[in-house]
Amino acid sequence: MQSIVTKYVLQYTTLTFWVTLLYCTSFEMANGIKTHLQEPILPQISDFVALVFLPHGVRVVFTWLYGWRAIGPLFIAQIFCGFFLFDVTDILNLHIWGAAFVSSICIFIACECLRKAGYKVYAYETTRFNWKKLILIGLLGSIVNALGNTLVFRVYIPSEDHLTTVLNYIVGDTIGTVIALFILMYSFRLIRSYSALLNK
Amino acid sequence: MTGKEFSAFGKLMSLLVDMEQDLGLTNLSDPERRVLSAIAAIAQNENVMVSSKQIKNGAICKELADATYYRALKGLIDRGYISVVDGRKTGLYKLITTS
Fold first, then answer.
1. Is the ipTM of this complex over 0.90?
2. For the segment A159-182, what is each residue's pLDDT rounded down to a tens digit?
């Protein structure tokens, strides 16, 4: 019994580690794009929104692969990014916790909506899955995320900007998902080329 | 890599290969894609190594003629997608991973 518990704790810790690492890395990349490209070119976009939000791709991929089991690691990763990368010292900042909650469950909600509509969405339910459906999941999840986050941060966003912020969130998350998939695809190509080279 | 992690890796790899194919970035044939998907699907419960019999008898590759199937296997090995398990010439395959 103890070994089974240890095994699951170890698996969950490993998953949390990878999710947090990839989430924080993509968060930093998205931050860099926002600072060096978005803000100089499109200064009118709300400070809360990154138009290329790569961590949404991490949420999509891990929730697709692990289902509800990805929620915890994604929540931890989001909190980690919120408190450490942004240097938020107030650990009781309810907005950060609220945003982390919304962000970690948004893809799961999107997947469950699609399942209710009769689709098989998780990786463990199907043998083959079309990548375009993964982008659709990302888009649906971004709507949930946009509405949730705008609600959480509503006190910081002027009411006349709420709709624009929601739309910007959706665009940023969806572009982020597509670019994250491209990064993954090219990373796998690189690994394969290297492996093929070693095998020769 | 544990069985579950390997399964996730295989599923992700299969999805990304389909993506490459749709975007015209790779020229894997349909049988090659089928074999790759079959290996990724079987690896879900069978850990890292997958036997040729398991792949061929699975729903995805059942319709493939023997010659097409073996050509697809060889093509995937040559391109670095899969490899023969160490110490064997054929019969037992694994997806190529970083670890």
1. no
2. 888 888 899 999 999 999 999 999
Domain boundaries, chain B: 28-95
Half-sphere exposure of A110 (CA within 13 A, CB side): 29
Q: How many CA atoms lie within 13 A of A167 on its CB side?
A: 6
| Contacts with A184 from chain B: Cβ below 8 Å | 12, 16
From chain B, the residues in CB contact with A181 under 8 A are 16, 19
Are the beta carbons of A128 and B80 separated by less than 8 Å?
A: no
Phi first, then psi, for residue B83 (nearest 5°) are: -140, 160
Does domain B28-95 match CATH 1.10.10.10?
Answer: yes
For B7-41, write each residue's pLDDT tens digit. Answer: 777 788 888 888 888 887 777 888 888 888 888 77
pLDDT at B47 over 70: no
First CA to last CA across chain A, in angstroms?
45
User: How many angstroms from the chain centroid is the CA of residue B58?
Assistant: 12
Nearest to B12 among A65, A130, A194 (CB): A65
- Give Cα separations from B98 to A192, A194, B54 (angstroms): 9, 9, 24
Does the pTM surpass 0.95? The reply is no
Is pLDDT at A142 greater than 80 in this prediction?
yes
| Residue from B2, B6, B11 whose CB has the most chain A CBs within 10 Å, to mutate | B11
